[in-house]
Fold this protein.
Amino acid sequence: MNGFAGADLAGTLATWVAALATIAVWSYLTGARRLFVLMQHLLAGLATGYLVLLAIRDVLVPRLAVPLIEHPADRVLLVPALVLVGMLVGASWLPRRLMAPVAGILVGGIAAYALGGAVVGTVLPQIAAALPTTGAASPDLVGEVISLAITSLVLLAFLHGTPRGRLTTRAAGVGRWLLVGGIGGWLGFLVVSRLSLLVDRVAFLLGDWLTVLR
């Protein structure tokens, strides 16, 4: 069986939808932007709906509604959180002086959470992994020292607007070039991964849909 005539109606329908969506996305290469924009809207709508369902099922109901209903005395901090959310919902008609502190608390909290996550989850593990932890005779010592040097130089590249000496300035310049090299390598990896997806889509159209390749 193939995508044109299959015993499983659901599988056949899914194959056709996937094939037509793939062709609609590729139509952008021929200048047919309306189909591509339609696919973008479809993807955004599906992703938004999926995230909303996840938020309701995994966050709002088990972590907000159920604790407030079953154990309201143990979840006192949820009440001011609900008040802040209600004020943000009514931000269009509430006074600006009342909404400015709420918005500031929200933005500041998100920024602090993101910065703390970046430091704890990325910077500190990177520094810890780069620190030499083995003996001098270990063959990994050279790699660990090089990793530590690259990490330090890239961190120096983010120093902007502060007084620096000539040595620090040159080290920051080297760190910027290393950062550019890392970004270039990441973009190259991204291109290769996208090419792999392209090959997979072509194989899907020619194999599962048209059954040209077997």
